[in-house]
Amino acid sequence: MGKGKTYELDVASLLQQLLDQGELGIHPEQARIQHKPAYYSRDRMKDILFDVSIEVCRRGASTPFWIWIWECKNYSHTIPVDDVEEFHAKLNQVGADRTKGTMITPIGFDEGAYEFARSKGIGLWRWIPKDTPVIRLDTGSELWSQESILYGLMTEITPGLPDGEFIYGLTTNGQLTTKRSELISLEFMDAQSNASLQ
């Protein structure tokens, strides 16, 4: 199995774990994690295949009212802006009003990718799974400045990485954080707002 597929499965496993533990803020019986889901594009007149998704359904329904789509990139270099632009175009084709998108990588994003994602409301996660070798810059601290988080999100050099898995993130509403619970809660506040409007 290639490193790209392995990373996709790791991301799907992480999301399933978060769902099962109640960390996503939704009932596990009202959501499902999908690996390689396909969603219909009216523009293409066929399905678009994605890496991972979280589908959220209303109680008793099988059709999702909201989908969080994850694009997994396990490159040996930072993610370029072109990849984020392509992901944005695909999200718009499958339902911009009922989808949220996040790109996830263990390496980081280039400056153009960060700026484009921030302007278009696309989340970015630099998720470094446990036991992944990294280049450390310093010993870290409990207090993370916005500059440190942005640096960690955009470069392979990792400031202050503690032992175990770690996340640098940009939420879809433009917040930088290293707290997984904060990343998730901010994303699902938007989902709950959208659900109440429907």
3D structure, described in words:
The chain is an alpha/beta fold and 198 residues long. The chain has a domain of 136 residues: Trna Endonuclease, Chain: A, domain 1 (3-Layer(aba) Sandwich). 35% of the residues lie in helices and 25% in strands. The protein is built from 5 helices and 11 strands. Strands 1-4-5-6-7-10-11 form a 7-stranded mixed sheet, with helices on both faces. A hairpin with a 4-residue loop joins β2 and β3. α2 packs parallel to α3. The C terminus is likely disordered. Keywords: Endonuclease, Hydrolase, Nuclease. This is Restriction endonuclease. Pfam families: Mrr_cat. GO terms for molecular function: endonuclease activity. It comes from Funiculus sociatus GB2-A5.
Give a topology summary.
Elements: H1 3-20, E1 31-35, E2 38-41, E3 46-49, E4 52-56, E5 66-72, H2 81-95, E6 99-105, H3 111-120, E7 123-128, E8 135-136, H4 146-154, E9 157-158, E10 166-170, E11 176-177, H5 180-197
Parallel strand pairs: 5-6, 6-7, 8-9
Antiparallel strand pairs: 1-4, 2-3, 4-5, 7-10, 10-11
Helix pairs in contact: 2-3
Strand line-up across the major sheet: 1-4-5-6-7-10-11
Query: Distance between the terminal alpha carbons, to the nearest Å?
Result: 41 Å
Derived structural class = alpha/beta
CATH topology (fold) name of the domain at 3-119 and 179-197: Trna Endonuclease, Chain: A, domain 1
Quickly describe the structure.
The chain has 198 residues and is an alpha/beta fold.
Which features does this protein show?
about 200 residues, alpha/beta, Trna Endonuclease, Chain: A, domain 1, seven-stranded mixed β-sheet, two-stranded antiparallel sheet, 11 strands, disordered C terminus, Restrct_endonuc_IV_Mrr, nuclease, hydrolase, tRNA_endonuc-like_dom_sf
